[in-house]
Amino acid sequence: MRHDHLITSKQLSRGDITEVLDHAAEIADDPGAVLEKHAGTLLGLLFFEPSTRTKMSFETAMKRLGGDVVDMGSIESSSVKKGETLADTVRVIEGYADALVLRHPREGAPKMASEYVDVPLVNAGDGAGHHPSQTLLDLYTIRENAGLEDLSVGIMGDLKYGRTVHSLAYALTKFDASQHFISPESLQLPREVVYDLHQNGATVREHGDLESILPTLDVLYVTRIQQERFPDENEYRKVAGEYRIDAGTLEAADDDLTVMHPLPRVDEIAPEVDDTGHAAYFEQAHNGVPVRMALLDLLLGDSDE
Ligand code: CP
Known about the structure:
The chain is α/β, with parallel strands linked by helices. It has helices at residues 14-29, 53-64, 86-93, 109-114, 132-145, 163-173, 191-199, 233-239, 281-286, 288-300; strands at residues 42-47, 68-71, 99-104, 121-126, 152-156, 178-182, 203-207, 219-222, 258-260. The strands form two sheets. A five-stranded parallel sheet has the order 7-6-5-8-9, covered by helices on one side.
């Protein structure tokens, strides 16, 4: 994979994605083979927004490759609080670390930051923009459960602000998947994303409810309505809880339907679904470790070279 930074799934070809997924599968089969491969390597973690999965799985991945992390910590305890710019912050931390992982509330911030550093930088989520490493673990989970050929995927919930959705949709386009987007009108995919997907040859269909499309799906990817991104609390209240999956909903689904969610969930998926054969969201979160190990290994390259 020939990329200095990972900013968006748009930059990845089908071949790039397959390379990461194949390498992740090798690592999952034999983690011992890469145990000390990046001994002495330090990964810088810069999270300007909360995270559990992305931050901890990158940390686990780096440590399982023999390296370690340096963590900027919370905004409150860092010099960001004193008004330091993002450009200055990343320029300083690239002197401490061999690669950087950045989450930021502002769309485009990782792209801008990457222009100030020479070490690889991974976008770990930028506002409502993109979350490409999430997409890689999503595709890995889809490949394990449903395969990536002749795929019909339903993506439901907050499609407007959902960065995991935007990243996944671009990547699924490269696998010629049939994509169905299910949301209230106010949370539809941004028009520019729909236009862009069509321009890239995607098959995109938008639906107001799940009922009619559910029986045809191989994968249902559910997302949280992101209260923190709504400019108006009343707008959030109008749609909160409108799209919820429970065991009754899934009676109409194919027996092999895979239900995914990038997590955290609030109430979009009832806990009773966890015990069905459909639920793949905890497996999906766990896949973050081998996939991010593979990604870091490929971005860092061979330390002997
Ligand atoms: N899926 C995801 O990005 O989760 P976190 O916000 O916990 O990192």
